[in-house]
Structure formats: C-alpha cells, structure tokens
Amino acid sequence: MRGHLLVDVPLIAAAVSLYPTCGLAPVGWLAAASAIIHGWAVVSPRSSLYMPVWWRVPGSRDCALTYDDGPNPEVTPRLLDLLAGSDQRATFFVIGSHVRRHPHLVRRMVAEGHAVGLHSDTHSRWFNCWLPGRIQRDLDACGKAIADAAGIPSPRLFRPPVGLKNPMVGFVCGRMGLRAITWTARARDTGSPAVEVVLARIAGALRPGGICVMHDGHEPGRDGVRASCLESTPLAIARLTSLGLRSGPLRATADGVAIGGSDASAEMVQPLAR
Question: Which of 102, 114, 119, 215 is the catalytic position?
Fold first, then answer.
C-alpha cells in the first residue's frame, strides 16, 4: 500500500495543484480527472479499468470466505480445524515464501477441499510498481511453491497484494491466464479489531456471490500474529447458516470464476501458453 501511495498521492496532488495555474483550462481539468480516475482504478476492488477483476460472483448460491497472507503455523492449522468442524470450504491466497517454509499446510488445504490462489511470492510493497518481467517472475515463483508443496499445477486464481492493480499487472495476468480476485467486503483486521467490528465490516459479503477477505497471516518481515479470523470466522459461518448459505471454494472457469461445484483443485490448471 505504501508503494502505491508514493506513486499516486503525489500524482493526484500535482493534478490538483494545476487548478490555480490553469483555472478552467481543459488541460487542468483533464489532468485532475485523469489522476482521480487512475487512483480509483488502482485502488477500487470493483474497478476493471486496467484488468478484469471478480469482486463478486453473480449467479452463485454460495459465498466465498477467503484468507490472505498465509500460511501461518500458529493460525492456519486452527483455522482449518474450524472450517473442517463446520464443513465449510474456503480459498487461501498464499505468499510463496511462506509456502516454502510451511508446505504441509498447503497440502492440508488442498486435501481438505479448499482452493489455493497466488498472492505473490514476497508481498512486496513495490509489487504494483514493478515492470511486467519482474511481476511474472514473482508470480511464477509463488505458483511453483504451491505446486511443489501440494503436488498440483500452479493456480489460476490470483489476488494482487493489497488488491492494487495497474496495466502492467493486468498485462501479466492476461499472459498467464490468471483470474484476479478482489472482494465484496474485507475485514481490515491488521490491528486485531474487535470481532463485532470485523463482522460488521464483512456483513456485505455474507450473501450469495459475495467474496469476503480475512487474514490468517502477515506479509514477510512483519512481527505479530493475525488471529482475529479465529474469532470472526465462526460468527461469519453462523451468519451464513442463518441465511441458508454456505462458503465454497473459488475456482476458475473457462469464462470467469465460480464458487464451489467441484473438488478443491478444480481451479488449478496450467497457465495459458505465453
């Protein structure tokens, strides 16, 4: 996120600063409008301006609980226990460097019917500033870590770090045949907020076709444990059950994304030819 702010905040500020000098001149309005549109396209989980994204799955009868930044040896096993105990399936967007340290957790995810997706190899704050070659090398490394850990092909599901997008990330996704998954609502659980706060934040995703983001880990190099998902997940599942809904794994299809309806590795196919 900081990398994005370093690029886009100065751009927007510069565009706004043009107003006093340009007045109502078209170039001033165009610069300001372009900066605002670019910022929205980069940040908004619903924007497909730079690349196709799936922030919900229209027509689905299920909801998708998703977890980012794992696997974590303290949190992920307990989360998997919770999901198994309630017979729910989820999608884990994992970091390649974590996978290499804890491959058994990815094997367990797949064995228990969950989907696994790419969340980059290092979760670098500069991911959104890289050129296509480096972006692809990073995603290839993450996919290889998953494939080596679980004995499956590299996933086609991908969640950009912090959900940020740009034309270069979009180009690489298209070349690799990836499906970029954002969210309907997210927990914003970095600071371990109260479980009631988390549930209120994700309530909008607990509906048919909704995609909910929580975290079972941190990006590399960050101290602490993100464990609020262990409290919020049972309440989210209870809310789904009260609505007659279930959580299912996301999977790539020929023309998009679906929730559930197949085994855990159905979304995992080899990337398209480059």
Answer: 215
Instruction: Quickly tell me which residue has 């009868």 as its tokens.
Output: 61
Q: Which pair of structure tokens corresponds to residue 238?
A: 């209870």
- Cα 69 from chain centre: 9
Separation between Cα atoms, residue 117 and residue 57, nearest integer Å:
16
Residues 32, 38: Cα–Cα separation, whole Å: 10
**Using CA atoms, how far apart are residues 46 and 75, in angstroms rounded to an integer?**
29
The catalytic position among 8, 62, 68, 69 is 68
Distance between CA 68 and CA 70 in Å, rounded?
6
103 class by beta-carbon count within 10 Å (0-12 exposed, 13-18 middle, 19+ buried): middle
Structure tokens at 62: 């299920």
Does the active-site annotation cover 215? yes
Residue 78: Cβ within 10 Å count: 15
Task: Please give the chain's pLDDT, 274 residues, in tens.
Answer: 444 444 444 444 544 454 454 455 677 777 778 888 888 888 899 988 999 999 999 999 999 999 999 999 999 999 999 999 999 999 999 999 999 999 999 999 999 999 999 999 999 999 999 999 999 999 999 999 999 999 999 999 999 999 999 999 999 999 999 999 999 999 999 877 899 999 999 999 999 999 999 999 988 877 667 889 999 999 999 999 999 999 999 999 999 999 997 544 434 433 322 2
Prediction pTM value: 0.85
Contact residues for 72 (Cβ-Cβ < 8 A; gap 6+):
98, 102, 216, 217, 218, 225, 226
